[in-house]
Amino acid sequence: MSKINIKNAINSFSRLGKQLTEPDAALQAIINDERYHNAWFTPESVSEAVTAIGKMLNEADLHTWLSDYYLNNEKESKKVGLILAGNIPLVGFHDVLCVLASGNHALIKASSQDARLIKQVLQRLVDIDNSFADQYSFVERLVDFDAIIATGSNNSSRYFDYYFGKVPNIIRKNRNSIALLTGTETAEELFSLGHDIFDYYGLGCRNVSKLLVPAGYIFNFFFESIEEHKAIIHHHKYNNNYDYNKSIYLVNSDKHLDNGFLMVKEDDRMASPLSVVYFSYYDDLAAAQQILIDQSENIQCIVTKAPISVPNQVVGFGQSQQPALWDYADGIDTMEFLSNL
Q1: Higher pLDDT residue, 152 or 249?
Q2: Whole-angstrom Cα distance, residue 332 to residue 123?
Q3: One-character DSSP codes across 142-203
Q4: What is the pLDDT of residue 6?
Q5: 20-to-136, 170, 190, 221, 341 alpha-carbon distances in Å
Q6: How far is CA 305 from CA 30, 141, 186, 194, in A?
Q7: Residue of 101, 94, 9 lying closest to 49 (CA atoms)
Q8: DSSP state of 141
Q9: pLDDT tens digit sequence for 185-199
Q10: What's the CA dihedral at 142, 156, 294, 167 to 10 degrees?
């Protein structure tokens, strides 16, 4: 294993975090230019992702996070293949960070949708601390690896299982996030829920795609409270999805509610199309909790203020897209996995 000095690593990661929370002119130019490579990566979305990672990399949280693991510097460094998703900006950064922090070597297969930002951020880390320069490589094809962390769809996960099943692996499938409403939410809380739904245009696994609402729930107050998010409809790709899904519902006479930029539709499924949020009714909190437990393997996180006990991460309104270092995707402890290679 590469000789990792934890104190130095924390210092370097936190210095990177400060750069990301206060972008200089060069980084701001990159943030602004991403839209020309990926239309979903607007300056606002990219800036939000960069800032969220910057806040994540604060010195106090880095100490708390890494103190939970025994990082044995005497072990031989392993080559860890990373297949990164590209649905939202820098979505694969945490996996890369875990490999670097554990003293292993990251073989990074970046998504074509998000290949530039991750390179820029890692170059900034190297500029801060050159010892990280030999701890990662960007590759077009994964070969000569000791372990794999792959993120993809339910379909691609079958291929990942086939190709990488013989080595230690973390293979992630589709997950979505859900909000449990009690009917007592304030306008401010529902407005914040709008961020959980609309940030990154709903493309992330931490975006809320499904609502659990009490029997008889009336959506008028919900729609009023999220009205300030209506500018999302001006993004042409989001608008195309909205128009398409609306036309399908109208042609099929599917019952739904529509406020001009979001449709809500009763549906038992977890994963809704862009511009649509599904909902299901529940009779009481115990029934709602059982639904969440039954769906736990399909849920990334749960947004609610209700007192529930479930296997998944529970966050407050507006917090789904602001994970901490220890909020691992799919609830699988990536650092524990890497520490035991």
Answers
A1: 249
A2: 28
A3: --S-SEEEEE--HHHHHHHHHHHTTS-EEEE---EEEEE--S---HHHHHHHHHHHHGGGG-
A4: 83
A5: 20, 28, 29, 37, 31
A6: 37, 44, 11, 15
A7: 94
A8: S
A9: 999 999 999 999 999
A10: -30
83 and 196 in contact (C-beta within 8 Å)? Answer: no
Length, in residues, of the chain: 341
Token readout for 59 is 């010195």
pLDDT band at 303 (very low <50, low <70, confident <90, very high): very high
Q: For residue 60, give both structure tokens.
A: 């106090």
Q: pTM of the prediction?
A: 0.93
As given in the structure block, the two tokens for residue 149 are 């962390």
The domains found in the chain, sorted by start residue, are 6-173 (3.40.605.10), 176-315 (3.40.309.10)
Contact 317, 208 (CB under 8 A): no
- CA torsion sign for 54, 89, 267, 258 is positive
**Nearest to residue 50, comparing CAs of 25, 83, 16?**
16
Structure tokens at 144: 């000569």
Helices (H) and strands (E) in the chain, counts: 12, 12
